[in-house]
Amino acid sequence: MQKKVLIIDDSALIRSVLSDIIKKDKQLTVADVAVDGSQALDFLLKGKRYDIILADIQMPKMDGVTFLREMNKHRIRMPVLIVSSIASKNASETIEALELGAFDFVRKPSGGIVGDAYNEFHDEIMVRIYQACRLGEYPEELKMRTPKEPEPVFRAGSNTKPVRKKLGLGLGKKKDTSISQISKLAVIASSTGGPKALQSVIPKFPVYFPYPLVVVQHMPAVFTKSLAGRLDEMSGLHVKEAEDGEMLQNGVVYIAAGGKQCELIQDSSGRYRLSETDKPARGGLRPCADIFLESLENVQVQDIVCGILTGMGSDGTKGIQRLKVSKKIQVVAQNEETCVVYGMPRAAYMAGIVDEVVPLDQVARTMVKKLGV
Fold first, then answer.
1. Where are the beta strands (DSSP E) in 193-286?
2. Is 10 an annotated catalytic residue?
3. Considering only Cβ atoms within 10 Å of each terminal Cβ, which end of the chain, N or C, has fewer?
4. Distance CA 6, CA 132 (A)
5. Do residues 193 and 310 touch, judged by C-beta distance below 8 A?
6. Are 364 and 201 in contact, with CB atoms under 8 Å apart?
C-alpha cells in the first residue's frame, strides 16, 4: 500500500515541485495539498490521516508552527517534515517547530529549483520521507549526489592514558584556556531529531560542569545560532555558536556552526582554539562529527567522552575509531526506543565502540559520571 503524503505550502510552485517529487516514487502518493495550516488542520479534524506531512513555516492564516501546536492540542500524531527557506527570520521558527515535534527539516533552494539544486532538494526530501515512513534506506545511488571525500583509514586498537586531576572550574570563571586548564573534553554528535533531543540533554549538565562541551549537530548555516540561543535560555551552562579562532573555555557549550567544518586546534602557546572553516562536506555533512573528532588526534587533551544521539547515517563512528588509537575516549549512545532515527547510535554500537547505551534522559548524567564530575 502506498504511503499517503499531505503537502502544505502557500506557494503553487513549491506544491507542484513537491508533488512531482512524490509522484516519481511508486511507494508514495500525494493524498492532499493545502495552501496553509488552517486548511490542513481541517483535513485532520475531519479524520483524514497521512503517513507524513510536508509543511512550510511562513504561510497566511495559519503558519507551520501554529499548525504543529494545533496538532499537539488535538493529540494528532504523525511525522511532519518542515520544508522551509534559509532566511534567518525563519531559523528560530524552524527550531521551535522541531521542539514541537517536527521530524526534521529541509531547506528550500535559494537560487531556484533547477539542476543540481533540484537534485539535492529531491534527495534530501526523499531520504527523510523514507526514514519517517519506515521504508528503509533511500537507494544509495540516488542519495546525496554531492561528491564525497575518501573515507579515512584507521587502525584498530586503543591506548588509554591516565586521567588528569579535575580542575573544578565552574560557570562564571571565564579565563584563557591553556594546556594546564583543559584536562577533559565532552563531545556530542546528533542529526535527525537532534535539536529536540538536545533539549533533554544540555540543560541536564550541571552548572558546575568543569569542562568544555562541543556539539556537532547536522544543520545548515543560520539555524545553529538560533539553536544555541534556545539551549542557552534553557541551560545553566552558557551555550553559544562556535566562532572561528575563539579559545575553548571550561563550563561552556559550543554548537558547531552550520555550513562549516568545526575542528579543535592547539596554538603555539598551548591554548585550544576552535576552527570554523569552509572545508568541503564529507558524506554531504557540514558540520561533520567525524572531522571534528579526527581533529582531536592533534591536541594534547587525552580524556574524552562522546555522546551519540539520534540521527541518520553513521557520522561519529569513524572519528571515534581513530581516536581509540591514541586517546582515552568513552562513548555513550542513545537507545533505540528514545531515538527519532536509530542510525548514528546503531552504527556506533555495531562497530563495538559504545561503552554504555542509555535512554535520552540519562545521556547527560552518564556523560558527566564518566568524566568523573
1. 213-217, 238-241, 252-255, 261-266, 272-277
2. no
3. N
4. 13
5. yes
6. yes
Cβ atoms 41, 8 nearer than 8 A = no
Positive or negative: CA dihedral 358, 361, 364, 368: negative
Closest of 254, 255, 251 to residue 373, by C-alpha: 251
Torsion from C-alpha of 5, 7, 8, 11, nearest 10 degrees: 180
Classify 17 as helix, strand or coil.
helix
SS3 7: strand
The yes-or-no answer on residue 104 being catalytic is no
- Which class for 1: exposed (0-12), middle (13-18), buried (19 or more C-beta within 10 A)? exposed
DSSP classification of residue 176: -
* 135 close to 27: Cβ distance less than 8 angstroms: yes
Q: What is the pLDDT of residues 202-251, one digit of tens each?
A: 999 999 999 999 999 999 888 999 999 999 999 999 999 999 999 999 99
Residue 172 has pLDDT above 60, yes or no: no
77-120 per-position pLDDT tens digit: 999 999 988 655 668 898 999 999 999 999 888 767 777 888 88
The active-site residue out of 85, 183, 191, 235 is 191
Give yes or no: 218 in active site. yes
56, 85, 190, 218: the active-site residue? 218
Which amino acid would we find at residue 363?
V
The residue from 36, 104, 303, 315 that is catalytic is 315
pTM, 2 dp: 0.84
Q: In the 8-state DSSP scheme, what is residue 205?
A: S
When pLDDT is averaged across residues 12-41 and rounded to a whole number, the result is 96
